[in-house]
Design goal:
mainly alpha
C-alpha cells in the first residue's frame, strides 16, 4: 500500500493539475456570460477529445518502458523514449489539422447557433498548444514509467499558476490588454502547454539526456512506431469512446438548450475532476504491474493490481458521498446563474452514483495497460458506452421525458457494466502466466 501510494499520489496531483487547467478556464469564462460558458463547454470537449486520444496513444509507453525497466533493459528504455517522442510530435500535427474542421462539425451536429462560433473560435485558438501538450505527455510517460514524478509535478504547478494569471489578463482585459473572452482563455492554455513541454524537458533533462541523446534517426521512421501504435491506439480509442459518450450526451442536450448544456458541463467538470484521481492511481498501477511483468513476478503483479483497484474504489466512494450530499453547493462554485444551478444540482448526484464504478474501471484499465492488454478495454468500452449507455440514455431522455437526467442514467449503467467486465478480466489474468512484451514491441 505504501509503495502504491508513494507512486500514485504525485501522479494523481499531476492529473488534477492537468484537469485544473481546464477547470480554471471554465470557472473564469463562466463569469463572462452563460453563452460563453456553453461555448467553452463545447470547445473544450472537442479539444480534449483530440488531445485525449493523442495522450492515450502515447500512453503505450507505460507497458513498454516499465516492462523494460523491470527486465533491466536500458537499450529498450532508450529506444522506447525516442520513438514515443517522435510519435507525439507526429500525432500533434495530425490532430491540429483535424481541429481546423470544428465549425462544420458543430453545424452538422446542429448545435445551438449562438454557441457554435464561440466553440469553433476557441478550438482554432487552441491548436498551437496541441503539439507541446503531446510532447509533454511523451516526456511525462518516460519519467513516470521509471517512477520519477517530481519534475512533472513542479512543471504542472507552474503551468497552473501561469494559466490562471494569463486567463485573468486575457479574458477580462487586465494590465492594459484587450478583453479577449474565450479566445484569451485559449491563448492562455497555449502558453501554459508550451511551458509544460519546455519546462519538463528542462527539469527532467538530467534523467532524459541519456535516453534522448544520441537520437537515432531510425525512430523518425513511421514504421518504427507500429508496435507502439498497436498498443497505444486502443488506449487512445478507449479514451475517445468514453469521452465521446459524455460528449454525445452534450450534443443531445444541446438540442434542449444552452442552459442545459452549461448545467451538463458543470456536472461533467466535477465528475472529470474526481475521475483524475483513479486515472492517476491507474497510471501508477500500470507502472507497478509493468515492473512485475518485466521481472516475471506473479505475486507482485497480483499485489499491485489489488492495491490499485482498492485505492481507486475507496477514494471514489468519498467523492460519491460529496456529490450526493452537496450538489447545489458544488454547482455554485461554477456559476451563480439561477437557471443553470438547479440543472447542475440535478445531475451532480447522478455523477455521485457512478463514482465507485468509475474508480474500479479506471484502475482496472490501468492494470490491463501494464500488461499491454489494451484491446480488451476498447471492446468493453464499445459495448458499455455505445451499445448500452448512449442508446439507453437517449431513450430515457427523449422518449421517456427525463431530459438531461435520462442521459446521465444511461451513462451510469454503462460505467457499471464496464467496471464489472474489466474487473473480471483482471481476475482472469490472475489465473494466467505473465507474458512480457516481445523484443519488437518493447522497442529493442
Amino acid at each position: 500500500m505504501r509503495q502504491g501510494l508513494r507512486l500514485a499520489a504525485p501522479i494523481v496531483a499531476v492529473q488534477l493539475g492537468q484537469m485544473g487547467l481546464g477547470l480554471v478556464d471554465v470557472l473564469m469564462v463562466g463569469r463572462s456570460s452563460d453563452e460563453a460558458l456553453a461555448g467553452i463547454a463545447l470547445g473544450n470537449m472537442i479539444v480534449w477529445m483530440l488531445l485525449g486520444f493523442g495522450s492515450g496513444v502515447v500512453a503505450a509507453l507505460d507497458p513498454v518502458l516499465s516492462q523494460a525497466f523491470g527486465a533491466g533493459r536500458p537499450d529498450a528504455i532508450r529506444a522506447g523514449t525516442q520513438r514515443g517522442l517522435a510519435l507525439a510530435v507526429a500525432l500533434g500535427v495530425t490532430l491540429s489539422m483535424l481541429a481546423l474542421g470544428t465549425g462544420p462539425v458543430l453545424e452538422l451536429l446542429d448545435q445551438p447557433e449562438s454557441v457554435r462560433p464561440l466553440a469553433a473560435d476557441y478550438v482554432r485558438w487552441s491548436i498551437p498548444g496541441m503539439v507541446p501538450l503531446l510532447v509533454f505527455a511523451a516526456l511525462r510517460q518516460s519519467l513516470q514509467a521509471l517512477s520519477t514524478i517530481r519534475p512533472v509535478l513542479w512543471t504542472m504547478l507552474v503551468a497552473n499558476v501561469l494559466n490562471a494569471g494569463l486567463n485573468e489578463v486575457l479574458i477580462f482585459g487586465r494590465l492594459g490588454m484587450p478583453a479577449l473572452g474565450l479566445r484569451g482563455s485559449a491563448i492562455a492554455s497555449d502558453v501554459s502547454r508550451l511551458w509544460m513541454a519546455v519546462g519538463l524537458a528542462w527539469a527532467g533533462w538530467p534523467l532524459l539526456r541519456d535516453r534522448l541523446l544520441p537520437f537515432d534517426r531510425r525512430h523518425l521512421d513511421p514504421r518504427a512506431w507500429l508496435d507502439l501504435l498497436r498498443i497505444g491506439v486502443p488506449i487512445g480509442s478507449q479514451f475517445l469512446l468514453e469521452m465521446g459518450a459524455f460528449s454525445a450526451a452534450m450534443v443531445f442536450i444541446g438540442h434542449i438548450g444552452a442552459e442545459q448544456v452549461a448545467g451538463h458541463k458543470v456536472a461533467l467538470t466535477l465528475a472529470s475532476m474526481s475521475f483524475m484521481v483513479p486515472v492517476g492511481i491507474g497510471a501508477a498501477a500500470a507502472v507497478r504491474v509493468g515492473y512485475a511483468v518485466g521481472r516475471r513476478d506473479e505475486a507482485g503483479f497480483r499485489r499491485a493490481a489489488c492495491v490499485g483497484i482498492g485505492l481507486g474504489a475507496g477514494t471514489m466512494a468519498v467523492f460519491g458521498a460529496l456529490f450526493l450530499l452537496l450538489p447545489t453547493e458544488l454547482a455554485r462554485l461554477f456559476t451563480d446563474s439561477a437557471a443553470i444551478v438547479p440543472i447542475a444540482a440535478t445531475l451532480i448526484p447522478l455523477a455521485g452514483v457512478f463514482q465507485v464504478f468509475d474508480g474500479i474501471q479506471a484502475v482496472g484499465i490501468g492494470v490491463l495497460r501494464g500488461l499491454a492488454d489494451t484491446r480488451f478495454a476498447l471492446v468493453v468500452n464499445v459495448l458499455g458506452y455505445w451499445v448500452l449507455a448512449v442508446p439507453l440514455g437517449y431513450w430515457l431522455a427523449f422518449s421517456q421525458g427525463l431530459g438531461a437526467a435520462g442521459l446521465w442514467w444511461g451513462l451510469t449503467l454503462g460505467l457499471a457494466l464496464v467496471a464489472i467486465v474489466v474487473g473480471l478480466r483482471v481476475l482472469w489474468h490472475f489465473r494466467r502466466p505473465l507474458r512480457p512484451l516481445d523484443d519488437a514491441a518493447a522497442g529493442r
